[in-house]
Fold this sequence. Notes:
Strands 1, 3, 4, 6, 11, 12, 13 and 15 form an eight-stranded antiparallel beta sheet that branches. This protein has nine helices and 22 strands. 28% of the residues are buried. It has helices at 2-43, 46-59, 65-84, 292-299, 306-381, 385-405, 413-428, 458-469, 506-530, and strands at residues 90-92, 109-111, 114-116, 126-130, 136-140, 150-160, 170-177, 186-193, 198-206, 209-214, 224-231, 235-240, 243-249, 262-264, 277-286, 410-412, 435-441, 451-453, 476-485, 489-496, 535-540, 547-554. The chain has three domains: 2-84, no CATH class; 90-303, Jelly Rolls, CATH 2.60.120; 348-554, Histidine kinase-like ATPase, C-terminal domain (Heat Shock Protein 90, 2-Layer Sandwich). The chain is of the alpha+beta class.
Amino acid sequence: MVKNKQKLITQCIQWFRAAFERIRASVYTLSYISGRFIDYINRGHAFAFNLMLKLVHDYFDNMRFKALFVLIFLFALKFADAQNDLRPQAKFSFNNKTDYDEVSKRKPKLIGVNYVEDRFGNANHAVFIYGNADSYINLGNYPALKPVEGSISLWVRIEKETWAGNGYKANPILLTKGRKGDDFYEAYGIYYDLEGRRLDASCARDSLRQIAVRGSQKVTRFKWHHLVLTYDFQYFTFYIDGVLQRKAIKNFETEFLQSDSVLLGISANKKNNRYMEGAVDDIEFYDRVLTDQEIQALYQSPNPNRFISLLQRLGIVLLFLAGVFVLYLLIRFQLNRKMKREKERLEINNKLLETELRVNRALMNPHFIFNSLNTLHNFILTNNVDKASNYLLKFSKLIRKILDSNMSDTISLEMELELIERYLEIEGLRFKEHIKHAVAIDPSIVPSKINIPIMMIQPFIENSVWHGLRDKKGEKIISISFLLLGNEYIQCIIEDNGTGRRKKGQNMLEKKSLATGFVEQRLALLNKIHNIECKLIIEDKPEHQGTIVTLILPILKN
């Protein structure tokens, strides 16, 4: 019973907490809604007002997610409004020869001027004033240009110091009058001081109330500068290129001469009659004092044609890439033609080399057969019928194997080893002492799966037998080893303990050089055909204790 009461009390406390949080959230939300309601009613946003009503309905309809979405939308709308707060009352951008106020659509008078490039290099996006009485701009005379409290932003590029005229030594950039007369008449004005070579801004009410702010640094001619002056009852402020020059105390209300217009490039004053030669661009008037951040935003304003410029650059890049691609296709076409001709030439050369290789290989068979028949002939002459018969039987089997292998340019290592075994059996019949031979194969080698050029090893075994072991007294040993070199080559080492390579008469040397010459020619041809590096190295052991032959052969496809 006690536990149930405690559980009930806990649930009640949780319910009251949830209700309190809901009421507090509702109060905050209603406060926000009411604030936005008043704001949008003042701004005349009927669409936002309808959204506000929908928000109230959705909020109290079980707090659905739709209300949250509308809240997010209103925050975004508020952010957009904050961004759009930097909206001028009058704007003259002159982009693409635009000759009117982009806010009110009123047309200024452009007298004796010309359109030129702006600070971004866009053609016909700025206006050039030529520094004489017949070249100036009259923006007009209407309230947007003459706010009691406001800010004026413009870009200017001084081209030449204009000394023509009379009165104060300054070239007028922007000027409008606050009273009649020839002195202390500027409601606001911006000048280029000829003697100090600085930019000045001024305003006046009478001879006792005049404010002048001078730029801190000399002006660089032929360079665009951003100028902003702001004013209200208390202060008169001047900025150059986003940097505050001075914030002067004013303490008087700005007044305007109702009959006077806002002029650029001319003073229109008999006593102080001066002109300005240079370019102006992006003249904007605001009905409030801009903040430092807003002035920086104006100074950092992007190229109005940034997307067009980007597209132009992209077009140039694409055109360049297209040209490179066409050039690539032409070069590739020429290379393909050249490669095709070279390939045809190489194919013809390869066919010639392969034919030469076959001829060379065919020459080796008669050489081997001739030596074998000489042995058989010796047995017959000595009336050794049994040996001759045995020799002839083994020789016929060997010839059969050789003829079978001649059907291909390659031979498996397994078949090559069998031919070597049969050959050594035949040659062993010719000697009184038995020829001992040993064959060592790398464990990673599978003889049946490796193909090498045919008739490359046997000639050197024959040389070892005929020129090394035949005249040797005592034990006759020949060893043959195979080692795998990567996936492309196999190394064969033939080593004997014979008499070595020594002079035994011209006939012996001719026979020996003939077999070796055949192999060297075949290796050279294989290197050309397959673009490989086969090698043949013959070394003599010290004191004529035998010969070592090292063959590096390619592993060929069957």
